[in-house]
Amino acid sequence: MLADMSWDFVVPVSLDDLLKSGAINQYVVQDVLSPKQLPSHLSSFKAALRSQGPVCILEHFDTMYSVLQHCRTVDLALKEDTLEFLIQVVRGLSVSLPSLLMSGTLSAADRKQQLNAVKMSVFLLCKLTENLESDSCRESIVTAPSKGRKKEKASGKGLQQWDSERETVLQCLTQLLQLDIRSLWNLSLVEEEFVSCVTFCCYKLLENPTIGHMKNKPTRDAIIHVLGVMVKKYNHMLGACVKVIQLLQHFEQLSSVCAQAVSAWSSEYGVKAIVGEIMREIGQKTSDELAREGSGVKAFSSFLSELSTLVPEAMIPNISVLLTHLEGESASMRVAVCEVLGEVLVRVLSGDKLDDSGRADRDRFLDTLQEHIHDAHSHVRARVLQVYSRIVNSKALPLCRYTEVMELAVGRLGDKSVLVCKSAIQLLAAFIAHNPYSCKLSSVDLKKPLEKETAKLKEMRENMSEKAPGTYLFVCLILYLVLVHVAHFRSSDCNFLPVQGPEENQASEPVASDQPPTPQKEGGKAADEGKENELKKQEMLVQYLKDTESFALQVERAIAVINNMLYWKTTTVVQEAVQFCVTAREFSVADSVCGVRKMLPLVWSTDAAVKDAVVQAYRRLYLNPQGDSTRAKAQTLVESLSELMVDASLGTIQCLEEIVSNCPLYFILLDISSMFINLSVCSCSAEREVVLSNLDTLCSVALGEKVTEDYLLARDTVITITNITDHVRVMVLSDPHWQTFMEQAIRLIYFLAESPDKLCARLLQRSARLLLEQVTEGGEPNQSQILAQLLSLCGAVAFWQVSHLERSVSTELRRRRGEKEEKEEKEKGPVGKNKDANDSCVEEELGLTGASAEDTEAEFIRKICETELLADGNMLSVFLPLLVKVCSSPGRYSHTQLTTAACLALSQYMMISPTVCKDNIRLLFTVLEKSSLPVVRANTIIALGDLTVRFPNILEPWTPNLYARLCDENASVRLTAITVLTQLVLKDVMKVKGQVSEVAVLLLDPEPHITSLALNFFNELSAKDNAIYNLLPDIISRLSDPERGMKEEDFNTIMKQLFSYITKERQTESLVEKLCQRFRTAKTERQWADLAVSLSLLSMCERGFKKLQECWDCYSDKLAEDAVYQPLLSIMAKLRRRAKPQFKVLYATCIHTHTHTHFTQTPLPKSARRPTRGNSLTYAFSHGLSA
After folding, report:
1. Which of 283, 641, 947, 993 has the fewest CB atoms inside 10 Å of its own CB, making it the most exposed?
2. Closest CA to 1015 of 611, 648, 601, 644
């Protein structure tokens, strides 16, 4: 057969084609062996391979063909042997062919022989590879276990071997195909069937679901190289383009692999045209075709995005074909095109060395991106903002576009999509981190320099116009040419404009003192040119200052908006806002400290992610000391926290204490000052040794002879020493420095003294005696202040006496009881122990173990508080009538400090027992409502909050009076009220009732901080199951009450926020029914309108709409009013827009019914009407309805 090479091997489309006789001299398989015959024939083939070399395939082709025919039935070992033989054949041809092809003496018969051997071996190897790949995929998909351990083991081993052999097969094919074997064909025209045979095998391997995994990277790269050779040498480019599109349509996971392949073919194999061909194929797809693609659209999108990161230069010539998708309906394709534009702008069209064409492309692409910041789809808007973030971070955005893009980003902070808001915050943070301006200067600081330089520019222009020759027309011509030149200069170099000061300008001018004299005309011309240069520089300086001022204004707008976003209910947005505040502070942006301070209360958030974000932010900004030594780090830490501690309130200090307790601090006290002791208050709970090691220094400096010179320092020192001990901290109220020092001193006495009650009794006696002595001696001008201090001392002693009894005395009683029980146990014999054990088992089953003893101790403490603390012989009882008299006589005792101290002390006395609380609760609420001093009202609210925690049943009837303070005319009182009520409600101390509508009103408070706290209240309340859902009907009724007189716009704003918490379908359905039923009881048109607006704010679906139809009788008679008709019409308009086709007719019918009822009913007389929201048809058209 070798001698007579009269036949040609034609690569078949299918295996069976080789069994049929085709054209003349076409090879046909003569004998298909049975599976039993294959082993012996394979042995013969092995021997022939050793003796004859790779051309033995010509004689033994039928043997290999028979293996393919029986591939599903023969053993795996047989197929592996066959694969090994074929690999040896292909390798043999790769070794022998180069010398034969280079010799140039190859005869026609030899050429045919080598060509047949190549085609036969490649065909057999590719087909066997396809079969083995199919078997491998089939085994990985099948989940049923194999029978017997041996088969399972063998199966797994075979699969593993194929994973390793796959790469070997591809390397053999690459080695052979890289040779110039095209000369074996006539006219070097390789038949399409041969190319398809190789490429089909490669694409088959790419369809493996695991081909994209990291472990398969060598195989993936080998496939890409084989296909690269076929594309470059065997005219497979068009076929590869078609196949890539097909793979993307059917295998979404191959988007990254295909992008890598196309990138390799373009860059490594020089076939750059393939990028354009594939882009044209994707660009020519219509919206209808993309809609039918399904997952293929996502694959196209991912492919284009990935390809742009690999070969952005190759995509520029054909990027216009993709721009048509920006007008299409597919959001995924719009995202992909925008990402391509962004990558091209960052990687190619950036820098100062662009030519005119490159600048034009850059500006066109940036304009396109800006348009899609307002895309209809939120995902596109978010991705465009993220693309801009990458552009800004890469410093690829021209300076002249900073202000414009930043303004668009600030506008997106109000987007309804959370993802868009997050992306906008990230973009603004990138602007701050990479801006060419000075963020340290505010717009106010920049105003005067800008006015000064603008005036200077105007003067220079006037001087130029006065000295210019000729007529007015000539002056205009000169100015026009100058402006055109400047504009051209800006457009060509608008990345970072150099700004020189006056000194630099002078230094940059050439010194001409040593030059020879020039004629008068030339000297005048040079002077004019110098003045023109000065004018240009001044214009650039003014423009730079204008851009800087505009940038500062945008930054200030962004900071104001993002600071309010710190209290959003969405965790991820809050985290981004915190990160923005950190970035702004790190770059010393003006007013950035406001956001840092505002985020501080979030350290108490119940959301662990938000709390952690705040802790990490403060750790990054202030608690990350730099220095080589411990002392240096301590100094850095104190300096960084000093800014926050200036004018810090007690609440701020407590928040910092919580943050510091979550951060490891290792420093030594370096200097004693009021600010540093405040810091030690925060740190001592986390690092007690820091204070203990410097206790002597603290006492000698802060509590020494000069204690009267600085009570604030003394107070903070006492707090620091108190915090060393293990105890439960009680919140103290902010007050003048002496009073807070006194409170902490009493606290320290009760924590550390042996008999604190006796010590404090003597202290009260001595203080009262000193007061009487001063009054007797004529010190009347200060008697109100001294009396206030005495009453404050009484209140502090009363409060800490109760705390001492409930904490220390109760603990001591439990300790003694434990010792007594332990002693009795030892004295009992074994019999007694068994008997007690049986009794204790019964008590454990009833849950009474230890309860009776603890109840007895608690009752004992309560009895002491009730009968002994205010008994006639007790020092505290002497001052109670005085406290009542001062609080009940505000006209006589009008001193601010005295009234404040008396009210606070009375509330502390009321903490002693329920009897004292009941006797004086009315007086305390009278003070709350009638006092003209905001500080008294604020302190009283805090005191009543503490009383509510201690005696909830007594305070429960007075709950409306507490809520009434939310409407107080003073902002500080409202702030205190919302803070106290938030704690009481969220800790389930106070039941949430309809009065919570007063909290809702604070969502519109003019004070931003109060608005933030009200928003945070509802955010936290929404975490409780059905809390807001249960309250909404009552809130609507209270806010829509005609007597309240709330504006319609304010009502809508509040309801929009509250209804955003209603996300469950069942809640929506139930609220629809409840609100519709209220139409029956509503009496005024305004109430009908408010109910209709509330219904329109619900996220209604089919079930909610069905319930609305069922309640038709409740509101149908009100449809004549535009204020009712318009919101209800908008509900159906929104439902119809997003409804399925089968429901659109139903919604259209309902719209027709409502419209007919609206126009046929008789409305109220005009005299009874109020202004409505507008013409009904206008409202309908604004919601997408047709006439």
Report:
1. 993
2. 601
Domain range for 939 is 913-1061
Residue 857 placed within a domain: no
Rounded CA gap, 1024 and 1019, in Å?
A: 10
In a domain? residue 475 = no
Q: What single-letter amino acid sits at 165? A: E
Residue 1163 domain flag:
yes
- Long-range CB contacts (< 8 A, 24+ apart) of 92-98? 92/49, 92/53, 92/54, 93/54, 93/117, 93/118, 93/121, 93/176, 94/172, 94/175, 94/176, 94/179, 96/53, 96/54, 97/176, 97/179, 97/181, 98/179
Same domain, yes or no: 1019 and 1091:
no
- Report how many domains make up the chain: 4
Q: Assess whether 1080 and 970 both reside in one domain.
A: no
* Helix/strand/coil for 8: strand
1086 shares a domain with 1032: no
10-residue stretch averages of pLDDT, the chain, 1187 residues long: 67 85 81 88 90 89 90 86 92 90 80 90 92 82 50 48 83 91 85 92 90 87 94 92 92 91 93 92 86 81 93 90 89 92 92 86 92 92 94 90 89 91 94 76 67 76 60 43 42 39 39 42 59 76 77 85 88 93 85 85 87 89 72 69 68 78 51 49 58 66 63 73 55 54 86 84 85 69 78 88 82 80 75 56 50 70 80 81 89 85 90 90 92 90 91 90 90 91 86 83 89 88 84 88 85 90 86 87 86 86 82 82 84 75 73 80 49 35 33
Token look-up 């259209």 returns 1148
Same domain, 1143 and 1075: yes
Residue 391: which residues within 8 A CB-CB, separation 6 or more? 342, 345, 346, 397
Query: Quick one: 1126 and 1075 in the same domain?
Result: yes
Q: Say whether both 1001 and 1142 belong to one domain.
A: no
Q: Would you state the structure tokens that stand for residue 391, as one six-digit string?
A: 């552009």
Q: Identify whether residues 999 and 1095 lie together within a single domain.
A: no
CATH number where 950 lies: 1.25.10.10
CA distance 288 to 293: 9
**Are residues 126 and 49 both part of a single domain?**
yes
- Tell me if 1038 is assigned to some domain: yes
What does the alpha-carbon distance between residue 574 and residue 650 come to, in Å, rounded to a whole number?
25
